[in-house]
Amino acid sequence: MKTTNIISLTCAAAFPFAIISCDSPQENAREDSLEQKADNLEDKADQIRDKGEDRADALDQRADDTDGSLEDSIEDSADQTREETERRADQLEERADAVRENM
Questions:
Q1: Cα 22 from Cα 14, distance rounded (Å)
Q2: What are the residue boundaries of the structural domains of the chain, listed by start?
Q3: Rounded CA gap, 55 and 63, in Å?
Q4: This prediction's pTM
Q5: Exposure pattern of 3-34 as b/e (b: 16+ CB <10 Å)?
Q6: Terminus-to-terminus CA distance in the chain, angstroms?
Q7: Which of 17, 45, 51, 83 is surrounded by the most beta carbons within 10 Å?
Q8: Banded model confidence at residue 67, pLDDT cuts 50, 70, 90
């Protein structure tokens, strides 16, 4: 008899926690949407990095093909392109992190 009461009380105490811990379908859809948004931001950051690196590499190649002071200027432009690209990509990744933190 006491065992039955203990089991009943344990189940009764655990039931509200089981109900609270379940996500609703709307909550799951919201989280999926936010995760997709964060993934898209990270994909865009990767694309920006790839395109920026391609542009900087093209500038480096052009600098190698030129002589004199113009070569230094082109190399500086390539370095600036890399820095700007990295900054923009980092901003997108920070936005992705913020989206995930708000889930």
A1: 13
A2: 35-103
A3: 12
A4: 0.72
A5: eeeeeeeeeeeeeeeeeeeeeeeeeeeeeeeb
A6: 46
A7: 45
A8: confident
